[in-house]
Specification:
Acyltransferase required for the direct transfer of medium- to long-chain fatty acyl moieties from a carrier protein (MbtL) on to the epsilon-amino group of lysine residue in the mycobactin core. By secondary structure, this protein is of the alpha+beta class. It contains 6 helices and 8 strands.
Protein backbone atom coordinates (compact mmCIF):
# COMPACT_ATOMS: atom_id res chain seq x y z
CA UNK A 1 0.00 0.00 0.00
CA UNK A 2 1.21 3.50 -0.78
CA UNK A 3 0.32 6.91 0.54
CA UNK A 4 1.62 10.17 -0.88
CA UNK A 5 0.89 13.70 0.26
CA UNK A 6 2.28 17.07 -0.73
CA UNK A 7 3.16 18.96 2.43
CA UNK A 8 2.58 22.57 1.50
CA UNK A 9 4.66 23.91 4.38
CA UNK A 10 7.71 21.84 3.35
CA UNK A 11 6.93 22.16 -0.36
CA UNK A 12 7.89 18.50 -0.51
CA UNK A 13 6.20 15.20 -1.27
CA UNK A 14 6.01 12.84 1.69
CA UNK A 15 5.38 9.24 0.67
CA UNK A 16 5.03 5.90 2.44
CA UNK A 17 5.39 2.57 0.70
CA UNK A 18 5.42 -1.00 1.95
CA UNK A 19 8.71 -2.24 3.36
CA UNK A 20 10.40 -4.59 0.87
CA UNK A 21 12.93 -6.97 2.43
CA UNK A 22 15.05 -7.26 -0.70
CA UNK A 23 15.12 -3.55 -1.45
CA UNK A 24 15.16 -2.16 2.10
CA UNK A 25 16.96 -4.56 4.43
CA UNK A 26 20.45 -3.04 4.05
CA UNK A 27 18.95 0.39 4.73
CA UNK A 28 17.14 -0.84 7.87
CA UNK A 29 20.29 -2.60 9.07
CA UNK A 30 22.24 0.66 8.74
CA UNK A 31 19.52 2.69 10.47
CA UNK A 32 19.14 0.29 13.40
CA UNK A 33 22.87 0.65 14.07
CA UNK A 34 22.85 4.46 14.24
CA UNK A 35 23.84 5.74 17.70
CA UNK A 36 20.70 7.92 17.90
CA UNK A 37 18.43 4.93 17.08
CA UNK A 38 19.96 2.19 19.26
CA UNK A 39 18.73 3.43 22.69
CA UNK A 40 15.11 3.63 21.55
CA UNK A 41 14.78 0.66 19.18
CA UNK A 42 17.34 -1.79 20.61
CA UNK A 43 17.51 -3.61 17.27
CA UNK A 44 21.23 -3.24 16.67
CA UNK A 45 21.37 -6.99 15.98
CA UNK A 46 23.51 -9.08 13.68
CA UNK A 47 22.34 -9.12 10.05
CA UNK A 48 20.98 -12.64 10.49
CA UNK A 49 19.03 -11.81 13.66
CA UNK A 50 17.69 -8.53 12.31
CA UNK A 51 16.60 -10.21 9.09
CA UNK A 52 14.76 -12.83 11.15
CA UNK A 53 13.12 -10.10 13.25
CA UNK A 54 12.06 -8.14 10.15
CA UNK A 55 10.73 -11.30 8.48
CA UNK A 56 8.52 -12.00 11.49
CA UNK A 57 7.38 -8.37 11.69
CA UNK A 58 6.51 -8.35 8.00
CA UNK A 59 4.13 -11.31 8.29
CA UNK A 60 2.53 -10.14 11.54
CA UNK A 61 -1.11 -9.57 10.49
CA UNK A 62 -1.72 -6.80 13.01
CA UNK A 63 0.91 -4.41 11.64
CA UNK A 64 2.19 -2.86 8.42
CA UNK A 65 5.78 -1.79 7.80
CA UNK A 66 6.57 1.27 5.68
CA UNK A 67 9.52 3.16 4.31
CA UNK A 68 8.94 6.89 4.38
CA UNK A 69 10.52 9.20 1.85
CA UNK A 70 10.73 12.90 1.13
CA UNK A 71 10.80 13.81 -2.54
CA UNK A 72 11.59 10.18 -3.37
CA UNK A 73 14.52 9.84 -0.95
CA UNK A 74 13.95 6.97 1.56
CA UNK A 75 14.78 8.33 4.99
CA UNK A 76 12.43 6.85 7.61
CA UNK A 77 10.93 3.59 8.86
CA UNK A 78 7.37 3.21 10.20
CA UNK A 79 5.33 0.50 11.89
CA UNK A 80 1.60 1.16 11.83
CA UNK A 81 -0.27 -1.37 13.94
CA UNK A 82 -3.68 -2.31 15.24
CA UNK A 83 -3.70 -2.00 19.03
CA UNK A 84 -5.78 -5.17 19.36
CA UNK A 85 -3.23 -7.97 19.18
CA UNK A 86 -0.39 -5.78 20.47
CA UNK A 87 1.06 -5.85 23.97
CA UNK A 88 -0.08 -2.25 24.55
CA UNK A 89 -3.77 -3.25 24.46
CA UNK A 90 -3.39 -4.39 28.08
CA UNK A 91 -2.70 -0.85 29.27
CA UNK A 92 -5.93 0.90 28.39
CA UNK A 93 -9.45 0.13 27.17
CA UNK A 94 -8.77 -0.09 23.44
CA UNK A 95 -11.44 0.31 20.78
CA UNK A 96 -11.39 -2.35 18.04
CA UNK A 97 -10.05 0.07 15.41
CA UNK A 98 -7.46 1.95 17.47
CA UNK A 99 -4.12 2.10 15.68
CA UNK A 100 -0.60 2.72 16.93
CA UNK A 101 2.61 4.02 15.41
CA UNK A 102 6.36 3.49 15.73
CA UNK A 103 8.82 5.54 13.73
CA UNK A 104 12.42 6.44 13.21
CA UNK A 105 14.26 8.86 11.00
CA UNK A 106 17.13 6.73 9.80
CA UNK A 107 19.16 9.06 7.65
CA UNK A 108 21.26 11.42 9.78
CA UNK A 109 21.09 14.14 7.11
CA UNK A 110 17.38 14.48 7.85
CA UNK A 111 17.73 14.95 11.60
CA UNK A 112 17.26 18.37 13.15
CA UNK A 113 15.53 19.79 10.09
CA UNK A 114 12.00 19.99 11.48
CA UNK A 115 10.79 17.01 9.46
CA UNK A 116 9.49 14.75 12.23
CA UNK A 117 6.24 16.69 12.65
CA UNK A 118 5.29 16.83 8.93
CA UNK A 119 6.16 13.13 8.57
CA UNK A 120 4.17 12.13 11.65
CA UNK A 121 1.25 14.30 10.57
CA UNK A 122 1.20 12.60 7.15
CA UNK A 123 1.30 9.10 8.69
CA UNK A 124 -1.45 9.83 11.21
CA UNK A 125 -3.54 11.27 8.38
CA UNK A 126 -2.91 8.00 6.51
CA UNK A 127 -4.02 5.96 9.53
CA UNK A 128 -7.22 7.99 9.82
CA UNK A 129 -8.10 6.96 6.25
CA UNK A 130 -9.67 3.95 8.03
CA UNK A 131 -12.97 5.57 8.86
CA UNK A 132 -13.55 3.32 11.89
CA UNK A 133 -10.30 4.51 13.51
CA UNK A 134 -11.06 7.22 16.04
CA UNK A 135 -7.74 7.12 17.89
CA UNK A 136 -4.06 6.67 17.03
CA UNK A 137 -1.77 5.90 19.93
CA UNK A 138 1.95 6.15 20.51
CA UNK A 139 4.13 4.77 23.26
CA UNK A 140 7.53 6.45 22.94
CA UNK A 141 10.28 5.76 25.43
CA UNK A 142 9.58 8.13 28.33
CA UNK A 143 13.14 9.53 27.98
CA UNK A 144 12.69 10.48 24.32
CA UNK A 145 11.72 14.09 25.04
CA UNK A 146 12.22 15.27 21.46
CA UNK A 147 9.73 12.77 20.03
CA UNK A 148 7.27 13.30 22.87
CA UNK A 149 7.31 17.01 21.99
CA UNK A 150 6.73 16.19 18.29
CA UNK A 151 3.82 13.88 19.18
CA UNK A 152 2.27 16.67 21.27
CA UNK A 153 2.64 19.21 18.45
CA UNK A 154 0.88 16.73 16.14
CA UNK A 155 -2.10 16.47 18.51
CA UNK A 156 -1.22 13.59 20.82
CA UNK A 157 -1.96 13.94 24.53
CA UNK A 158 0.06 12.36 27.35
CA UNK A 159 -1.98 9.69 29.13
CA UNK A 160 0.33 7.82 31.51
CA UNK A 161 3.64 6.01 31.86
CA UNK A 162 3.43 2.29 31.19
CA UNK A 163 5.91 -0.54 31.69
CA UNK A 164 6.28 -2.45 28.41
CA UNK A 165 8.51 -5.54 28.16
CA UNK A 166 11.32 -3.55 26.50
CA UNK A 167 10.93 -0.02 27.93
CA UNK A 168 9.17 2.41 30.21
CA UNK A 169 6.91 4.22 27.76
CA UNK A 170 4.65 7.23 27.77
CA UNK A 171 1.23 6.25 26.45
CA UNK A 172 -0.14 9.02 24.21
CA UNK A 173 -3.45 9.36 22.33
CA UNK A 174 -4.33 11.33 19.21
CA UNK A 175 -8.10 11.55 18.80
CA UNK A 176 -9.43 11.94 15.25
CA UNK A 177 -11.52 14.99 16.20
CA UNK A 178 -8.53 16.82 17.70
CA UNK A 179 -6.27 15.91 14.78
CA UNK A 180 -8.77 17.08 12.17
CA UNK A 181 -9.51 20.28 14.07
CA UNK A 182 -5.78 21.00 14.26
CA UNK A 183 -4.74 20.10 10.70
CA UNK A 184 -7.53 19.52 8.22
CA UNK A 185 -8.52 23.16 7.91
CA UNK A 186 -4.93 24.42 7.80
CA UNK A 187 -4.19 25.15 4.16
CA UNK A 188 -0.44 25.06 4.72
CA UNK A 189 -0.35 21.39 5.64
CA UNK A 190 -2.38 18.37 4.51
Amino acid sequence: MKHNVMDRELKSEIAFRDFDMEKDFSRIYKWMHQPYVIPFWQLNLSKENLKSHMSEARIDPHQSLYIGSINGDPMSYWEAYWVQGDVVEKYYEADPFDQGIHLLIGEADYLGRGLALPLLRAMVDFQFKWKQTKKVIAEPDHRNEKMIHVFEKCGFKKIKKIELPDKTALLMFCEREEFEKRWKNDATHL
